Amino acid sequence: MTFPGSARMEVVMGIPVMVDIRTALPQRELTPLLDDAFGWLTWVGETLAPEMERFSGGQTIEQIPELIEIQHRCNELFENTGGWFDRDDHEAYIRGWAVERLSRALTNAGAVDHRIDAGGDVRVRGSAAPGRQWRIGVRDPQQGTMRTVLIARDLAVATVGHVTVSSADLGVAGAYASAMHRMDLARARRFADRLPYRTVIVTPDGTQEYGGALQLAG
C-alpha cells in the first residue's frame, strides 16, 4: 500500500531515526521539512548531548537556552521519581525531548500526520492514512515478539529494558521508563499504579503487566 507524504531514515544521535510524514504535501515542501528535521536532530546530537556529558562530569557548560531547559526538566524528573531518574543518565530524556520538539515543529509546518521512530521510541500525530489511526507495537525485550499494540492519533511511547511508558510527551515517557527500569519489580509496580500514563512491564518470567489509564488494543 502506498501513502502520501515522504519518509527518510538516517542514523543520528547514535541511533537509527525514521521520520515518516503522511500529510499530502507537495514534494517541494516535504524535502526541506525532512532536511530541517534531521538537521535539528544532528544539532542536538552534536551540540546538546556533549554539553550534557560535560555537565554530568562536573564541568562548566555552555549557557544554551535549550540546554538550560533540559537541565531544569531533568531536575524536575529527578524529584518526581524520588531520585530514580538519574540526572547523570540524561540520554533517555534528551532523545525524547528532541523528538518531541521535532514533532511540534512538523505540526506547526503543516505536516500534521507523522510518525517519528528514534531507536524504537515513537512519537505519532494525526493519521497514518485517511480514517486510520497509527498502530505502535510493543515488543518483548527478551524474545523480540509483539506483546501488544497501541492505537492512537497523538501519543508518545518509550521503552527502556522491560518497561514501556506511553504519554503525551516522549521525553517524559523516556525518563519514567528509565526510572522504572532501575527499580525492583515491586517498586516499579507501585510506581506505575500512581502514574497518569499507561505502562507495560514485562516481568522476568515473561508475564505482561499494565498500569495507568490509556486504552490499549491488540
Automatic annotation (TrEMBL):
Enzyme class: transferase
Cofactor requirements of the protein: Mg(2+)
Protein's UniProt keywords contain DNA repair: no
EC number: 2.7.1.180
InterPro entries referenced in this protein's UniProt entry, alphabetically: ApbE, ApbE-like_sf
Entries under Gene3D superfamilies matching the protein: ApbE-like domains
GO terms of molecular function: metal ion binding; transferase activity
Pfam hit, one: ApbE
Keyword NADP: no
Keywords attached to this entry: FAD, Flavoprotein, Lipoprotein, Magnesium, Metal-binding, Transferase
Catalytic activity reported: L-threonyl-[protein] + FAD = FMN-L-threonyl-[protein] + AMP + H(+)
Protein name: FAD:protein FMN transferase
Source organism of this protein record: Nonomuraea soli
